[in-house]
Backbone:
């Protein structure tokens, strides 16, 4: 039976990843990229059939404790047994020009009998490899992939698995390393596991030294920033939405999607959160990735790309995998890459504006892209689209999409006003016509008037789509992007409606699934949307409500500080792909909103003594010139 999603921890080498369970089993491993064919896919089926690598005590375990070492992605899982205490220390070294998982078994008291089982099943559990002994371990080859396991422990074959039994005594350490290689090439020499762990911990500490956020919840914000960095592709600068595919939004349901790609929306939110935490290099790398990926005709802009900017992400189902906890189908690829989502233009232009505010150099290529995107929005903002949630029930005039079209034009205007028309014209390409900023201002006003005329119901609340009586959590973005201020009566009416229609045990569902979204079944509450509600509370002056909801959301994190996409308040389990960039981005932003609200109120809030760092641009603080989502 599958472990609960929250029982997993993430390893990443900034190119590929693994998920390690509390039982010491790596049940998901993709080499050499996040979107590669998994060598361990046990999380989506059965460990013995579809791949895993477990190292754990052979006998009874009385307790398990886990932690990441300080500000790193080096994981310690400590097992207490009747005979002793043993730790399994896991990591994936980043930036080494190779792909390894290293594991060290360290006995800390007494003696413990250990068991290891390695089941390699390439291509998502479908290929049983050819395995041969080599000096110091074994090699497994299947199709284009090869894996080498190196260890001093004696290995043996058993039922198409590689197993080992060994004892560790207090003070002893037993290293293991698992290295990927192309089957057409020779396997790399084994990496020194103990040294690799030390170097990896030092690498993460060095990266985290750039952390500049000094407000409340700094430890939680840093851990979320580390997750976002772990989902960043070092070679390209792209940021994947999650490292997994097909972890379900409903146990036993069909809402199972592949999130191992770079959504422009997700990556943009991640970029802004990393910038505000002090990690400017990631902003520069993402901006370069963006310019490469979307180069060409803006009419061909996709909502998502592969980690290196790939455009063809065809969706297929893997019928040999039963799915996590029998939640089928298992999908790879994502058909949503062909959808038209108008809001993406607003998010991209907002991110590019924010990058310049944070000091990113302003240049001709970036400005040319922004102009082309605004021109496209000017022509297509009145078209129906598929919306932020990628529903498969047909295009509509989604209110959030129209608001983000307004954001696209607004941020372009803000860029001109920030830098001045003379500088803007100085970087414009010779063939571009003169810039008519007044025309953009008229367009911005027209979009806003349209939304206020058609996206608000008779009770004065924003609705999911024009003419609809349904509500949608994306409407919480309206004050966050500065479309109207948080004290606008329409914001209060919208928040009240969402509290009535979308809350489940105090957490927020994305939208009312009674509408036609083209899918059967339901889903859990969406953690990012719940953070958005806390943001609204903070901006509206409901600081106690904001803090209470934020604290409840923080309590949902697992023992190593990770969040999935969704949460089921009935079963108390996480749902959806894990860990989810959106959730950790929202955590960072909400911490900042609470700090900003606390600063506005002052020392009267006794629960929060001290001073919060103020961001340069807070959501909803500058009227129509407000900042990021």
Residues:
């Amino acid at each position: 039976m599958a472990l609960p999603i929250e029982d997993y921890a993430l390893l990443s080498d900034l190119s590929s990843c693994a998920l390690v369970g509390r039982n010491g089993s790596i049940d998901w491993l993709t080499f050499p990229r996040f979107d590669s064919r998994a060598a361990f896919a046990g999380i989506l089926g059965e460990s013995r059939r579809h791949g895993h690598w477990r190292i754990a005590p052979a006998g009874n375990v009385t307790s398990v404790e886990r932690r990441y070492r300080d500000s790193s992605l080096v994981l310690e899982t400590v097992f207490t047994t009747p005979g002793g205490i043993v730790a399994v220390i896991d990591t994936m070294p980043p930036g080494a020009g190779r792909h390894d998982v290293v594991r060290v078994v360290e006995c800390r008291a007494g003696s413990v009998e250990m068991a290891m089982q390695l089941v390699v099943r390439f291509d998502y559990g479908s290929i049983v490899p050819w395995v041969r002994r080599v000096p110091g371990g074994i090699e497994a080859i299947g199709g284009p992939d090869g894996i080498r396991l190196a260890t001093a422990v004696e290995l043996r074959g058993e039922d198409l698995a590689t197993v080992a039994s060994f004892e560790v005594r207090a003070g002893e350490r037993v290293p293991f390393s698992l290295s990927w290689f192309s089957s057409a090439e020779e396997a790399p020499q084994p990496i020194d596991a103990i040294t690799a762990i030390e170097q990896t911990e030092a690498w993460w500490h060095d990266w985290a030294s750039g952390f500049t956020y000094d407000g409340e919840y700094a430890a939680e914000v840093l851990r979320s920033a580390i997750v976002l960095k772990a989902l960043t592709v070092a070679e390209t600068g792209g940021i994947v939405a999650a490292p997994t595919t097909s972890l379900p939004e409903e146990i036993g349901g069909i809402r199972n999607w592949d999130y191992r790609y770079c959504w422009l929306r997700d990556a943009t939110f991640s970029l802004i959160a990393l910038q505000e935490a002090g990690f400017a290099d990631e902003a520069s790398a993402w901006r370069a990735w963006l310019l490469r990926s979307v180069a060409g005709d803006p009419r061909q802009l996709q909502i998502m790309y592969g980690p290196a900017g790939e455009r063809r992400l065809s969706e297929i189902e893997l019928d040999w995998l039963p799915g996590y906890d029998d939640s089928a189908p298992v999908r790879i690829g994502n058909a949503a890459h062909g959808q038209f989502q108008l809001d993406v233009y607003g998010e991209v232009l907002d991110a590019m504006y924010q990058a310049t505010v944070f000091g990113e150099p302003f240049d001709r290529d970036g400005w040319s892209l922004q102009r082309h995107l605004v021109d496209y929005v000017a022509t297509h903002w009145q078209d129906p689209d598929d919306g932020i949630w990628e529903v498969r029930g047909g295009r509509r005039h989604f209110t959030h999409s129209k608001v983000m079209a307004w954001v696209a034009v607004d941020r372009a205007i803000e860029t001109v006003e920030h830098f001045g028309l003379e500088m803007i014209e100085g970087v414009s390409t010779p063939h571009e016509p003169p810039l008519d900023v007044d025309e953009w201002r008229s367009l911005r006003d027209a979009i806003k008037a349209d939304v206020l005329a058609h996206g608000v119901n008779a009770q004065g609340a924003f609705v999911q789509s024009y003419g609809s009586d349904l509500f949608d959590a994306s409407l919480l973005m309206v004050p966050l992007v500065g479309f109207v201020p948080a004290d606008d009566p329409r914001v209060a009416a919208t928040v009240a409606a969402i509290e009535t229609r979308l809350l489940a045990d105090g957490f927020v569902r994305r939208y009312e699934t009674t509408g036609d979204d083209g899918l059967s079944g339901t889903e859990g509450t969406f953690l990012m949307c719940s953070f958005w509600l806390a943001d609204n509370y903070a901006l509206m002056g409901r600081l106690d409500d904001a803090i209470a909801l934020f604290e409840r959301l923080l309590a949902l994190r697992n023992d190593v500080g990770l969040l999935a996409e969704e949460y089921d308040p009935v079963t108390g389990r996480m749902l959806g792909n894990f860990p989810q960039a959106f959730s950790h981005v929202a955590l960072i932003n909400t911490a900042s909103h609470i700090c900003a609200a606390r600063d506005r109120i002052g020392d009267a809030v006794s629960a929060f003594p001290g001073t919060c760092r103020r961001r340069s641009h807070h959501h909803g603080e500058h009227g129509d010139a407000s900042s990021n989502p």
User: Anything to note?
Assistant: Confidence is low (pLDDT under 50) at residues 603-611, 613-629.
